Amino acid sequence: MITFTLWDILRNLLLATRWTILLSLVSFIGGGAVGLGLLFLRISKRKAFSVLAKYYIELFQGTPLLMQLFIAFFGLGLFGIDVPAWLAAGLALTLWSAAFLAEIWRGCVEAVAKGQWEASASLGMGRLQQMRYVILPQALRIAIPPTVGFSVQIVKGTALTSIIGFVELSKAGTVVTNATFQPFTVYGLVALIYFALCWPLSKSSQILERKLNVAHRSH
């Protein structure tokens, strides 16, 4: 019978953690890019664009991420398209993240005083110029804490991708448990690794929110 030391278990989990981190980064960056596009559509003066973005956001916020992962992985398979687990996981998490980030950022843009819109419009700025030079720089300060905070949800969301066969930290935990028959040790280490990934992000979000609020009040 093969015996597994604590280091053997931890090493295998840490190897899988690389994929959790990579998937989180891809989802956050991709979701941010798509979310920024959704933001511009959502606040557009053209009602059709605004409504389209609104329905997208409501669809992805109103349905379980697990279902979205299933559709991304199995849905395209109905059309004869073979989708690798990593691609389906990245696509689903990116589209899901985009919906939440767009809504977070919309709230931050709307938090900027309306007088800023009026003042920039009086200078002859177009909509894009207003956003680029006046609104977004102010909204960015408000957006940093909740955006960093949401990254924690993305890291946690990667755990669901194990259901479609993507081998990240939680999936590796199951595999290692089946090999070692030490579920308490394995899942205890899995929990500690997730905590090590999420706690600094959560704490950073709180610190940034506190600092930026103080800076805002001082002005």
TrEMBL record:
Residues 17-205 form the ABC transmembrane type-1 domain. It comes from the Bacteria. It is a multi-pass membrane protein. One of its GO terms (biological process) is amino acid transport. GO terms for cellular component: ATP-binding cassette (ABC) transporter complex. PROSITE patterns: ABC_TM1. The chain crosses the membrane at residues 20-43, 55-79, 85-105, 139-164, 184-202. GO terms for molecular function: transmembrane transporter activity. It is found in: Cell inner membrane; Cell membrane. Keywords: Cell membrane, Membrane, Transmembrane, Transmembrane helix, Transport. Belongs to the binding-protein-dependent transport system permease family. HisMQ subfamily. This is Amino acid ABC transporter permease. It comes from Rhizobium hidalgonense.
